Amino acid sequence: MGRLFWKILLTFWLTLLVTGGITGAMVWMHHNNLQEMEKDVVIRPHSVIAVKAAANTFLYGGTPALRNMLQEQKDEAPRDLQVYAVDSNGAELLGRTVSADTLERVRIAVTQNLKLPIVRSVQSGAENYVLFAPVAGQFPQFRQENQLRPPRHFPPSFMIVSGIVVSFISSFLLAWYFSQPVSVLRKAFGAVAKGDFSQRVTPSIGKRRDEIADLGRAFDEMTSQLQNLMASQRRLLHDVSHELRSPLARLQVSVGLARQQPEKIASSLDRIEHEAERLDTLVGEVLTLSRLESGVPQPLDEYIDILELLDAVIDDARFEADAMGRQVVFQADVDDLPLLQGRGELLYRALENVVRNAIHHTPTNTSVNLSIHRQGEQLQINVDDQGTGVPETELDSIFEAFQRSSAGSANRHGYGLGLAIARRAIESHGGSIHASNRTPQGLRIRIRLPLKWDA
Predict the structure, then answer these.
(1) Which domains does the chain carry?
(2) pLDDT tens-digit readout, 356-369
């Protein structure tokens, strides 16, 4: 379960907790107010009898009979046995003063159906009264005994509206939190679909740390890779077309000479054959490089004896070096190595390209030194020549397709694809390849291959 899951879970959970808490607090306060009302009322048996008698008197005798009864109670009965009658306008039948707090508590008792025996609502015809016996806080002596605040009352509609508002705000924030980056991603995908690979979404998403942010970073990596691949494809197409022009032009010239000078047709055919071989070599290297750069994983299901593979490379390289007046010296600091898992053809092609490149750049009557030694779980192969080296600014670019060093232009050969193929082949085996200048002169190509590697 990722961070996005927990954000959704916690947001909805906290929303329910807050809504439930507010609702519960409102219910508790409302219930507590009603309980305070019940506690504020002084209930005595004779007060219950007096209220019931006043109610019956009104129902059977009307307002005049109720007035007479209340007047007799006022004149003869103790003050805590008196019954008060308040009409719908808030006026007491005998004109006595009733505090607003007491009247509010009495009316709440009636409207909330508290069923207090000393509070009754009676109606006869158009006349109606609220009858009640003395309530705490009504008279000065009771107010001194129990000073009370007016009861707080929260209607149910307030609780419902509060829950709706809280849930809406949290839902709105959650919806915005998720919809905003999704909208950014949708626009970016639309732009990429139209061919704009410069789109980046991480600056718009911000400093989020969840799955959506991870998706945004993955999108940026994807568009960056696509942009590089498209640029590489365009550059490759341009370079291939440029490299094809020269042998094709020479082919056309050879065909023209063969037609114009039949006596030189043999030499023209030799030139045509030579240029055809160069074209075949170029197309083969381009196809190899394209296959390695396609991103399609190559099956690495062979077990390779690296020492045996190096022996084969060196035998072929020495044959070519002898013809050019150069030597290849091999030094192995290891006796026994585990078998490498990979593709022998790719590794052979990579090592051969590096060694042949060194042979063509080392001066006549010098040697190319090749050494191999083990460093922990890695195998290091060094190929050293004694040429002019490479400018420091070009050390990385020589492994790009059709890139050739500006130094030693007289020794230029091939199409600048050998080291590019070597780098892709080595990297497909989990290794690395780097170039560095030697002292006092020469270039070193260092290849590192893991002895244990899971493709």
Answers:
(1) 41-154 (3.30.450), 223-293 (1.10.287.130), 302-450 (3.30.565.10)
(2) 889 988 999 999 99
